[in-house]
């Protein structure tokens, strides 16, 4: 049996879908911004500042350039084959079934781990918001076991509950998901703009000197963690993960040939500008070394430095909304990847069953939503977040290489959008992805290899035998 059997563009496009088409360019842009703007600003800017100093804005720009090149490749594939599945479907088209399964398997891990990781950050901000009203949850229920040094915790109740609520919203229909996300993103953007307007006056240019204290890449004496612009870019790359989930909505998008590329690229551009402005302001208000005092809540630390205490409540609310939209888009993307893989026979049919009323992959959405909630509730997964980065970077490399291959093997295929500068654009995407992967530690590579091996076992034990591309009567 051919491990690299492919689907054609016509096969992908002609596959009927019962999903409801309601998403427009504005909705896709909000979906992308909802996925990107959240953890990066409200959590990762602290660790990023300690790693790169004020040059963190360059790190964000480097990560954005990497995503920009990859985003152009995603946009071409999305316009060529507007189907659910994102990088999984594109790999099926370009390289065949085995590579497609591996990428789909990686994306499932990416989306689940990011949603579970963000639920831990969401819980922290939620507890702070409750404290502002004089309310306190039992400390044992505020975080997963062993998450907070010196504090006995067993279960992250707020994180568990918010994931289940988001799963419920996703399961009852894309229209409800769209409206919920659009509203939350608009509120989040308004709060970020308010923060910028209120804190820009407190910038001290002296805090930007030296601008790049650790250079491009260096090791500090006694530390195994690299410092500098590139390592910080590898960390904050986590912030941009999510725009690829926009392409997962292809079968629920109106006129996907035009709206998908626009949604992907506009959301990336808006998010990049906001990240750069925010990091310049934050490192301008607070010396970068002082972020060690509030690494888990860097934005709140900046507010305390300005004395604008009234702004703290508003920003906490913005952080909650921001991280909620990130989890919503990640869980949405995960359910659509599983839906596509189930339809192709690589996953059990359970994950591809569409609810007759809500017209969503109802059972698959709840299955992975509950697993993600349990993971975020019980497991200290903060040490695993770099797995999300390596899985996503691998998908970016495959998609970018796929553009090169498709331009060579199928130059006349219909493309509603053509990535400019090919082969320069996909080659740059691949190079930037490898640079960022090199900034990850060796433990991440080991964990990724283990997950990869588990995926191969699943493929050869189940998926290969049940693939929809099998010849009749072969098994």
TrEMBL record:
Keywords: Membrane, Transmembrane, Transmembrane helix, Transport. InterPro entries: AA/rel_permease1. The keyword tRNA-binding does not apply. The keyword Transmembrane helix applies. Its main location: membrane. It is found in: Membrane. It is a multi-pass membrane protein. The chain crosses the membrane at residues 28-46, 52-75, 87-108, 154-173, 185-204, 224-243, 264-288, 308-333, 364-381, 387-405, 417-438, 444-462. This is Amino acid permease YhdG. It comes from Bifidobacterium pseudocatenulatum.
């Amino acid at each position: 049996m051919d491990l690299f059997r492919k689907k054609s563009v016509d096969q992908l496009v002609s596959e009927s879908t019962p999903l409801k088409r309601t998403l427009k360019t504005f909705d896709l842009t909000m979906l992308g911004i909802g996925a990107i703007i959240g953890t990066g600003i409200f959590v990762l800017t602290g660790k990023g500042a300690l790693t790169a100093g004020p040059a963190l804005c360059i790190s964000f720009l480097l990560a954005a350039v990497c995503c920009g090149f990859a985003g152009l490749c995603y946009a071409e594939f999305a316009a060529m084959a507007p189907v659910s599945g994102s990088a999984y479907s594109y790999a099926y088209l370009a390289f065949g079934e085995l590579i497609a399964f591996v990428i789909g398997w990686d994306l499932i891990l990416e989306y689940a781990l990011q949603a579970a990781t963000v639920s831990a950050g969401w819980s922290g901000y939620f507890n702070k918001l409750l404290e502002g009203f004089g309310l306190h949850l039992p400390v044992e229920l505020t975080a997963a076991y062993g998450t907070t040094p010196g504090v006995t915790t067993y279960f992250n109740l707020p994180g568990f509950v918010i994931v289940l609520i988001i799963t419920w919203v996703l399961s009852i229909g894309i229209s409800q998901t769209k409206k919920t996300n659009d509203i939350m993103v608009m509120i989040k953007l308004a709060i970020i703009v308010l923060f910028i307007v209120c804190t820009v006056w407190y910038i001290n240019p002296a805090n930007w000197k030296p601008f790049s204290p650790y250079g491009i890449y260096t090791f500090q004496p006694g530390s195994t963690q690299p410092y500098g612009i590139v390592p910080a870019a590898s960390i904050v790359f986590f912030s941009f993960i999510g725009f690829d989930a926009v392409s997962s909505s292809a079968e629920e998008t109106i006129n996907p040939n035009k709206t998908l590329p626009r949604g992907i690229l506009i959301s990336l551009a808006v998010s990049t500008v906001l990240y750069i402005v925010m990091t310049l302001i934050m490192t301008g208000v607070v010396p970068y070394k002082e972020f060690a005092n509030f690494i888990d809540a860097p934005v709140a630390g900046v507010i305390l430095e300005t004395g604008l205490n009234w702004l703290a409540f508003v920003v906490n609310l913005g952080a909650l909304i921001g991280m909620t939209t990130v989890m919503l888009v990640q869980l949405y993307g995960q359910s659509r990847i599983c839906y596509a893989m189930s339809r192709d026979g690589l996953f059990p049919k359970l994950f591809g069953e569409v609810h007759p009323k809500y017209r969503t992959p109802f059972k698959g959405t709840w299955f992975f939503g509950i697993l993600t909630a349990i993971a975020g509730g019980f497991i200290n997964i903060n040490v695993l977040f770099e797995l999300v980065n390596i899985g996503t970077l691998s998908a970016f490399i495959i998609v970018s290489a796929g553009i090169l291959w498709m331009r060579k093997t199928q130059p006349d295929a219909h493309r509603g959008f053509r990535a400019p500068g090919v082969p320069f654009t996909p080659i740059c995407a691949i190079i930037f992805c490898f640079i960022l992967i090199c900034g990850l530690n060796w433990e991440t590579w080991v964990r990724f290899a283990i997950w990869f091996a588990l995926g191969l076992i699943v493929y050869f034990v189940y998926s290969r035998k049940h693939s929809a591309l099998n010849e009749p009567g072969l098994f």
